Amino acid sequence: xxxxxxxxxxxxxxxxxxxxxxxxxxxxxxxxxxxxxxxxxxxxxxxxxxxxxxxxxxxxxxxxxxxxxxxxxxxxxxxxxxxxxxxxxxxxxxxxxxxxxxxxxxxxxxxxxxxxxxxxxxxxxxxxxxxxxxxxxxxxxxxxxxxxxxxxxxxxxxxxxxxxxxxxxxxxxxxxxxxxxxxxxxxxxxxxxxxxxxxxxxxxxxxxxxxxxxxxxxxxxxxxxxxxxxxxxxxxxxxxxxxxxxxxxxxxxxxxxxxxxxxxxxxxxxxxxxxxxxxxxxxxxxxxxxxxxxxxxxxxxxxxxxxxxxxxxxxxxxxxxxxxxxxxxxxxxxxxxxxxxxxxxxxxxxxxxxxxxxxxxxxxxxxxxxxxxxxxxxxxxxxxxxxxxxxxxxxxxxxxxxxxxxxxxxxxxxxxxxxxxxxxxxxxxxxxxxxxxxxxxxxxxxxxxxxxxxxxxxxxxxxxxxxxxxxxxxxxxxxxxxxxxxxxxxxxxxxxxxxxxxxxxxxxxxxxxxxxxxxxxxxxxxxxxxxxxxxxxxxxxxxxxxxxx
Length: 549
Prior knowledge:
The protein has 549 residues and is α/β, with parallel strands linked by helices. It folds into 2 domains: 3-309, ABC transporter type 1, transmembrane domain (ABC transporter transmembrane region fold, Up-down Bundle); 331-547, 3-Layer(aba) Sandwich (Rossmann fold). It is built from 15 helices and 12 strands. The protein has a 6-stranded mixed β-sheet, with helices on both faces. A hairpin with a 2-residue loop joins strand 4 and strand 5. The mean pLDDT is 79.
């Protein structure tokens, strides 16, 4: 059995597996015993031997029961272990900081957890089958030694040569599987660009052709070639095993009589044993490719988990402290805050800062500037999604750090440009359905969406409708600070006016603080302060009223 897979099962399961191993041992022994019974009964086939018949039937019954137990228990434990692993990784993902999550990317997470899980599960089923088959092979070898010690040593020599050749090929296969796994990650990344950038690619044929022909097609062709080559090696190993079985039989028939005096009856008995073990040997051999792929899948799972282990930003969190006990605030202050994105050596690094900023409770603050000016990055820094690489953020006089980031983030309700629309109001225990119904009416969504059994009836909406439903969800959270990143974009003029002049005004009356990035200069007068960003720095600040209604 494979050490990595077994180590995984031991680590992730609270069961030792001793009962499974004992059941597999019993199954293998009785599988081998059936060979002995058939061989012995065949010596006197003319007379019905009831003792052999009863032993045969009992052996078949025990074999069936123990194999069923082994396979069923292995499947149950393996599925539980994989579920536990997936949930643990999911928990680590939700605890990780945003910048690491963005670097890893959703495609890698999804493919590693979904495809890897099923490959590993299938490998455990093959291991359970292979274990029974391997024990049966050991028992049959012992029986062969009892029949003829010379035949046993002869077959052992042949097996040793066969295993050496097989393992040499297998090492090459394992190397190629690792290479193909790396290339498949690159393919998934390119495929994600196709899916996420579908609209942009439809509008730009040159971009579409470049992505498809020079990346998707090229990487796919390389993966195909290495996979075909690897499959060819797998097939060669399987065929080699079949040929190897013929060589073992030939050794008994042609070589053994030359080494020692052997009766025809003995030769036939040995050949019968070898023919009977062809199936179990095939089960062992066919399990090896699946186990090899599962090894790579486990390596990818371990690597993913290791990344998120180091990205946990809740490890130092405390449940008590000055910020944790706050329910309101007066001022959020950024002092000399800087942040830079990590890029490869040949790319220019985009930085924000140093930023000095003060946000007072109840203010409406607008961030304005061109695309790439740093608005979204500054919004994420303010929300605690990114951490300052230099400088400090304070809520009142309390520095925001790893011990209290969770409490700090809890002050915010956010809608970013790449927001996700949830199908439920997660986190709200007692939903005020009357208020929700009024908001659906105000946002002109009541004819499109209903809220039944704690779930929105439909979230397959247009971009503008999705933003309005996301806004409803944010308003229902009733947080002290609302952070909006281009929420009014993709909306008709009527809703834009409603958002700026009514929704934001109502939030201000409630004492809420609003921080929004926007391009809508027509509504800058709504803000108390308008800050212009350029190249990651605040270059201008004006009062909203200076812009006029």
